[in-house]
Structure prediction request, 388 residues.
Amino acid sequence: MREMRGTGSISNLLHTTTCMSFLIILTMIFSLRFMAESLRFVRKADAGCTAAGSPVVFNFGDSNSDTGGIMAAFGFPIPLPEGRVFFKRSTGRLCDGRLIIDFLCESLNTHFLSPYMEALGANFSNGVNFAICGSKTLPKNEPFALYVQTQQFLHFRTRTSYLMSQGMNGLLSEEQFRNALYMIDIGQNDISGAFQEANGNYNHVLSRIPPIVAEIKDAIKLLYESGGRKFWVHNSGPLGCVPQKVAIPRNDNTDVDAAGCLISHNNGVSEFNSQLSTLVDSLGAELKDATIVYVDIYSIKYDLIANYSKHGFENPLMACCGHGGPPHNYNPKISCMAMGFTLCEDGSKFISWDGVHYTEAANSFVASKILTGEYSRPKISFDFFCKG
Prediction:
């Protein structure tokens, strides 16, 4: 581990709070103004896309799939070592390299998704990424909740149609919107926030889950009504296994499982995932001309953490970028990018990048499992939507 200097007050704010807390601060600002390395696992998809044009993906989510939206939206710098492995520069991703969604795009032989709010250099020929760090489902009208992201999509779609009617070329066609894949990966921040509010009251966490799932239902139906027919829904990973949570002081280990994860937090996530799974089944029966795929990210990530050595990793509950050293290298007052943070030399041996987000190596592993189709229901390949 190497001790590093911090990178300024704004960057410190971003990394000394969770994305969720950070976004709450930004929401207050908005209210005042308006009454914000390695390919060792992943393989290319066996068959390329055959639908008209290149594959098109619209993604909605939080920091797990934010490819630079938070930086584009608010202009806050997110410097190296973020992005140090693959990009060799910061891209706005909270990771040392690529995210799961980046590897999935690579499997389609298409370029990475551009953030919706990126003003310069954006390329929307293969879709748009609406995901932004800290996003939740509720409150629905706060930036950048899932509902807000879907409204941004509707604006993008309407604006595209208008500009095409005015003779502009190079925009997405109606057929491409219809054949696109609509990805949703959100809910982790809602569940984390519910635990913070609960103060030990697990029933409070359970009571928060149905409204979260209802927002995801509304989002899918809205996208369906706008023409979307192919959906890819990720469940939430094991929140109780991230260093940020396991580093919280506790009186004993009665809430800790064999992998070192917090049982209560993982139970809460599992209940959310169960209700999300039921929702996907229900919508699949209701929207008969739609394909809605449920992807079990939880099982992939828990297996990675519980069997880390088998998969080539070390220190599964320790952050590469943080402060405090073993066992977790996580300190909420001196987190990654804050003054005095420490940095591991080889992030490819770590699962956790900053105590909350995964390293590129871990993301590569998760993406490789997704691409097998074994964790999807129905068992279907990721490129199903663009095979014609």
Notes: The longest helix spans residues 202-225.
